[in-house]
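User: My instructor asked us to take a sequence, write out its structure as tokens, and then describe one feature of it. I'm not sure where to start. Here is the sequence I was given:
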Amino acid sequence: MDEQDDLTGAPSADAGDPATPRAAGGGEEADGPSRPFVVPCATLGYDAPWRWLRAGWRDLRATPGLTAVFGLVILLVSAAISLLAWNLGRFALLATLLSGFVFIAPLICVGLYCVSRARERGRTPALSESFVLARRVVGQAGVFALAQGVIVLLWSRAGMMVGAFFPIDESNADTVWQFLTIGSAVGSIFAALTFAVAAFSLPMIADRDVDMVTACVSSINAVLRNKGVMALWAGIIVVLTALGFATALLGLAVLMPLLAYAAWHGYRETLDARDWPALD
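Assistant: Let's start with the prediction itself. The structure tokens for your sequence are:
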């Protein structure tokens, strides 16, 4: 098998299972120097996102109490950040919303991934396990949050530059359309980068002893190799998140855990991370 096949080969059914026996010398092969630069990824079909949602829905139905706890936390955090941003005024509204979610969401997501991870391994999910795992990966989650924060700041600065170079003249409809077109194009670049970095990196650090750089690069690689499918997945996330906000944030209490569970199953189906030690 050539290098291209090694990079894109689909994970086997036991991918990532710490109990999976290794070939002779497997212990040495698992050492850092012999690992690939990025985690091998599968080629996905367009039915994959819907399969992830169905699996996430099963996790949600199987753990209503635990999901309700996380849902309530998400609802309260969302409401608190929104209220704070509103009180700070229009200038700080968007920056506060984005930065607040960027720095708090990773730890909440890790706790939710722990629920799906426990069910996958035949264990009964417990809130205490989510807290233990969140403490173990808090450093990596912090690196992720900082990286996302930098992207958000660059995004905000790019938006200001678009406004400066292409000012809106309310009496001229052409300037409005020009601003919206260029602004949307610039914004889509940063949105795509944010999505590509986050798609599989957070579930991976909740599952494997891997550095955040490797997780992020592997996530970007998997997204680039499955552009159409991941664009569909991104669209689903946008629609469900918009529905959550449209219900005065109440829908987020259900939709965010559902998306987190689905993201876990997406990671497990897409990345073959067996060469990295599993977190116990």
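For the description part of your assignment, you could build on this observation: Residues 1-32 have pLDDT under 50 and may be disordered. Try explaining in your own words what that tells you about the chain.
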